[in-house]
Design brief:
By secondary structure, the protein is α/β, with parallel strands linked by helices. About 35% of the residues lie in helices and about 25% in strands. A hairpin with an 8-residue loop joins β7 and β8. α2 crosses α3. It is globular, with a radius of gyration of 18 Å.
């Protein structure tokens, strides 16, 4: 939800976005999720003029979708896709890699080492092409109450911004604490309020 919401926000501001789907979503499901974020509805009613208007807006957004979840999918596949879009005049400003752990690498030292190398190469690729690279990585709650990135801590250590969702058992189901663990551009180590509202994650001051 964070990744799709962020991409949607950027695209609606006019930024050109490539969204790489490595998770269990296909392009149709991805666009349906965008619809949910905008309306709070699970699916569009094509007999409803307002729903049709939202669907048309989504189709017109400057978002190109890369979908490749088959075994053997690599960063080279994504870079080939980016180069093809650039040749057609679509110059991306942001590239999102949703669930980067699904990308195959070539490490023989285990999955953690492999994922760290993939994240490093993704950032290098972003630098070559001159766009902002955004990685989505699961965060695991440890037995001692601490939180860590799944598989690869280097993803967090090299990030410009690291967010963590920290739900409390006593909190209402639609209220969440979002912890800004590290922020190169502003305050770090602080909580902000968020509201989970009908498939939408909304950052609001009065969330609690």
């Amino acid at each position: 939800a964070w990744m799709t919401n962020s991409a949607l926000f950027a695209a609606r501001k006019g930024h050109r976005v490539i969204y790489a789907l490595y998770a269990d979503l296909d392009p149709r499901q991805f666009k349906n999720r965008l619809f949910q974020h905008l309306t709070g509805k699970k699916r569009a009613n094509l007999l409803d003029a307002e729903d049709v208007k939202v669907v048309q807006e989504i189709e017109s957004l400057p978002i190109e979708i890369f979908h490749h979840v088959e075994h053997g999918s690599t960063l080279r596949d994504l870079e080939t896709f980016i180069n093809a879009r650039k040749r057609k005049g679509f110059m991306p400003e942001m590239v999102f890699a949703d669930y980067i752990q699904m990308i195959d690498g070539d490490s023989t030292n285990g999955r953690t080492d492999e994922t760290e190398k993939i994240s490093k190469r993704f950032n290098q690729m972003a630098a070559r092409h001159g766009y902002a690279g955004i990685i989505g990585s699961q965060v695991t709650a440890n037995m001692d109450g601490s939180f860590s990135a799944k598989y690869a801590k280097e993803i967090e250590e090299n990030a410009a911004l690291t967010l963590q969702l920290q739900p409390e058992k006593e909190d209402p189901i639609n209220r969440r604490k979002v912890f800004i663990k590290y922020n190169r551009f502003g305050p770090s180590g602080v909580f902000v309020g968020a509201r989970w509202d009908s498939q939408r994650l909304v950052f609001v001051e009065d969330a609690f």
